[in-house]
Amino acid sequence: MSLIIAFIYPNYIAPLFDRYDPLREGELLTSI
Fold it and tell me: The pTM is what?
């Protein structure tokens, strides 16, 4: 059961609450 939840949560449930927008070119590179 926990394996099923561990697979389903990051793929289907987490995206409903967390929005992962791709960074614009250069944002991450300049911060590093």
Answer: 0.35
